[in-house]
Amino acid sequence: MKQAGRTIIMLAVLIVMFIPLIAAGQSPQGPNPAAESMSYRQARRALMTAMQYAGASQYGLTIHYHPVVPSSIRLTHDTLEFDGRNQKSDIAHFTIPLQEIGKLRASCKGLWMCSVEQAGKKTFLADFGNEKKTFFLMFGYDLAPKVKTCGMAQNHDECMKAADQFVAALNSLHTYALGPVAAEEDFHQQAMAWRALVSKPALPEAARVRRLMAEDALKNHKPEEALRYYEQGLDLCPMWPEGWFNAALVAGELGRYADAAEDMQNYLELVPNAKDAQAARDQMEMWKLKAGQSTAPAHSAGQPNK
Question: CA-to-CA distance for 48 and 154, rounded, in angstroms?
Answer without folding.
Answer: 17
